Amino acid sequence: MIVVAAVIEANEQFLVTRRQAGVHLAGRVAHERAADWIAAADAVCQPSLVEPFGQAILEALASERSVVATRVGGPPEFVPPGAGVLVDPTGVEAIAEGLRAAAALPSPNPAAREAALRDLGDRFFADLAAGRSDDPVLRAVVHTVRAYGHDPDCFRRFLASMAMDLTVSTYATWDDLLGYMDGSAAVIGEMMLPILEPHRHDEALVPARDLGFAFQLTNFLRDVAEDLDRGRVYLPQEDLATFGADPWRRTVDPTAPAGEGSR
Q: pLDDT digit string (tens) for 233-250?
């Protein structure tokens, strides 16, 4: 176990005990190194009395790391079963049992990332309704949406496609892929229009969406190997079958005979 903290008070007996138990006191960690420490962890424990769901817990969830967080002061749905454990931050045995339970969860833990994405969406729409945010990134987004009159549904579609990346690894047909790209790419073109302020918005809408599709398809073709490393194949399965192509071979397939299929 590694303990990261700005101040660690310890007597000699504690130091002897923690060495026997395999506990390492790392002390303060620079902010720019925090992500590396979280990524190296199997689970992240921060049962704070002051900060119910601190940035470290949210970053751990986003990094697919199970968490041990506090029951005090925060909505329990932020850490659903399977993503982590909520404990009484004043109980040593409760924290120890929480650590054991979190260590038994998968690592990496996709449920944790799903919880982080859901929390991000909930916070964004709550902040948008309130017209303000304490988060510096969300504050900027809320300001932009309210200043330029973006349709909030654009963000719902975007978050829905991001959630698909947590559970969907292949797309059977071109239409299935278009459904994903509507929220991952075409909607970005829609979001740009209020900022670019074209003279004829209605005429610019379809080209803006098409540009989003084009960028996304270029990314898919460029990142075939990287996506395979993540267990994903975005190219439609029906098209791969038509051309006898198998991305998992990680090699260039022979060119299909002319007329066998095209997109």
A: 999 999 999 988 999 998
